[in-house]
Design the sequence.
């Protein structure tokens, strides 16, 4: 229903009817339309209904980094680009629903802000343990996370994939190239 009508255009009655449950059952299970959207966004992001609340999402992302990415900053940027592209493809609709819901519902706005904080912690976790000597001169670890947050963002995915027509492979390559150029010391890998 959210996909068809957007957050604002979807009623709790319509959700219950489509799900084939009573309105009371829907409220008992979810409490509100807002909580249902939040659960959808979190499940879409993590593939789990508990990874955000039980705190395992960031460590799961870190486990996706292979040994080369843990030791080679260039390989790490490329792997982060792949991880982000996978998440972005999965999260496309959820991000738009959360953003649009935030425009009309203060509770969703709060959830959206919390999910953005989680996105920052997630990206920071992917940079954790990387040698600061690999960073561009003058770039701090915190600045690297901010740079990653902007490049690997729902907005860049929407702009390049939807508006500009990039394939997922082209988008992943762009993210990787841009991360390397914006975050790492200039020069070829290993130089």
Sequence:
């Amino acid at each position: 229903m959210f996909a068809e009508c957007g957050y604002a255009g979807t009623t709790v009655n319509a959700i219950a009817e489509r799900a084939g449950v009573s309105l009371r059952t829907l409220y008992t299970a979810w409490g509100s339309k807002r909580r249902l959207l939040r659960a959808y966004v979190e499940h879409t992001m993590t593939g789990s209904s508990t990874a955000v609340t039980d705190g395992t999402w960031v460590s799961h992302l870190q486990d996706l980094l292979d040994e080369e990415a843990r030791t080679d900053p260039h390989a790490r940027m490329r792997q982060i680009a792949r991880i982000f592209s996978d998440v972005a493809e999965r999260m496309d609709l959820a991000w738009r629903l959360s953003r649009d819901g935030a425009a009309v519902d203060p509770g969703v706005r709060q959830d959206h802000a919390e999910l953005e904080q989680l996105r920052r912690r997630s990206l920071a976790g992917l940079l954790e343990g990387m040698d600061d000597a690999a960073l561009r001169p003058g770039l701090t670890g915190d600045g690297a996370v901010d740079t990653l947050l902007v490049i690997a963002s729902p907005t860049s995915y929407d702009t390049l994939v939807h508006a500009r027509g990039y394939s997922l492979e082209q988008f992943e390559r762009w993210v990787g190239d841009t991360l390397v150029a914006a975050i790492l010391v200039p020069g070829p890998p290993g130089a």
Notes: The chain has a mean pLDDT of 91.
